[in-house]
Design a protein that fits this description.
29% helix, 5 helices, two-stranded antiparallel ribbon, 8 strands, Rossmann fold, alpha/beta
Length: 173
């Protein structure tokens, strides 16, 4: 298997923690981890197997000195990328209690941007075991990637990551 490129944002917090958990479970020899704040989009193109992680809300949302979170800055860089022939799996963090009507919405936004690049999307997840009202990440009866709720279901994160990796790793040849 060629190296997997894992791209996440924002730096620090739960998304980074889950990205590191995923990387640890895959193994340092098989994965390279990048924060989207620190790279240009052409780095993504270097990988055939790609994992991307995003949060729906974070402290940056309420910060008075907010100049845009990591993905707000990186999203425009995805425009025009050609990822045909590459496989992309997504994970997203959200809060299913306070934001039940917007659960992991940014995961859906990321999927829309990645789909426009021609990449093959893998790693869709059933809604079994999740409680939410609405989500832009829930399409055609499945989530477009792995939803994680570190605020209220952190005890389920490792099991969900393990199950998701069993799903996506065979797809990464």
């Amino acid at each position: 298997m060629s190296k997997i490129g894992l791209f996440y944002g924002p730096k620090g917090g739960n998304v980074e923690r889950v990205a590191k958990l995923i990387a640890e479970k895959i193994g340092a020899d098989l994965i390279e981890v990048h924060n989207v704040r620190d790279i240009e989009a052409d780095v993504v193109v270097q990988y055939s197997n790609i994992i991307m992680g995003i949060s729906t809300l974070g402290k940056h949302t309420w910060s008075s000195d907010n100049t845009g979170n990591d993905w707000d800055i990186f999203f425009p860089k995805l425009n025009g990328l050609d990822l045909k022939g590459k496989k992309v799996a997504l994970f997203g963090l959200g809060d299913h209690i306070a934001y039940a009507d917007f659960f992991v919405d940014s995961l859906g936004d990321l999927a829309e941007s990645i789909s426009a690049t021609g990449a093959e999307m893998i790693g869709q997840v059933s809604d079994e075991g999740y409680e939410f009202n609405e989500s832009r990440a829930f399409q055609d009866g499945k989530f477009v990637g792995l939803p994680i709720d570190e605020d209220f279901e952190d005890d389920m994160t490792e099991k969900r990551v393990n199950n998701w990796l069993k799903l996506i790793l065979p797809e990464f040849k």
